[in-house]
Amino acid sequence: MAYVETEIDVIAPARVIYELAKEQERFPEFMPDVESVTVLERRADGVISRWKTLVEEAPIEWTEEDRFDDEGLRIDYRLLEGDLDTFEGSWTFTERAGVTHVVLGVEYDFGVPTLAELIGPTLEKKVRENSEMMLAALKREAERR
């Protein structure tokens, strides 16, 4: 399995950014590659949601479970079903002097070893670009609040 970690600094309180990241059904409003996020089940400590995104104009769909750690300002997610074999990771939010450092970690596997061998570096680049796009969009939205 491959792992990509991206990070960004946001001039907003960690709690504000964390709460925004928990509002996944709003992501299509400010994240261009996210077509839709439908919350299938909402619990006090998380959600189960269905995602539709575009990667290089190719649709990718999955259902994931997100667990919210409101005290630790952390979101852990994992794939339940979809177009990937593995898709899991976490969002963390750490505030220092009015700036919040947000880290998004993604572990992924498309489940086709020959595909990974052929396009592994390209795939890693796309996962990194998509993660960076999500963080940049989250930053723009949080700094507007």
Distance linking N and C termini: 37 Å
C-alpha-based Rg, rounded: 15 Å
Characterize the main sheet: 7 strands, antiparallel
CATH homology-level superfamily: START domain
Beta content: over 45%
- Please tell me what the overall shape is: globular
The beta-strand count equals 7
CATH topology: the name is Alpha-D-Glucose-1,6-Bisphosphate, Chain A, domain 4
Structural class: alpha+beta
Q: Order of strands side by side in the largest beta sheet?
A: 1-7-6-5-4-3-2
Share of helix among residues? 25-40%
What's the CATH class, please? Alpha Beta
* Average predicted confidence as pLDDT: 90
The helix count comes to 3
Uncertain residue ranges: none
Taken in chain order, the helices and strands follow as EHHEEEEEEH
Kindly give the count of domains: 1
Instruction: Just name the CATH architecture.
Output: 2-Layer Sandwich
Main attributes of the structure:
145 residues; alpha+beta; Alpha-D-Glucose-1,6-Bisphosphate, Chain A, domain 4; 7-stranded antiparallel beta sheet; 3 helices; 7 strands; 50% strand
Spell out the blueprint of helices and strands.
Layout lengths: L1 E9 L3 H9 L4 H4 L3 E10 L2 E10 L2 E12 L4 E9 L3 E11 L2 E11 L3 H32 L1
Helix pairs in contact: 1-3
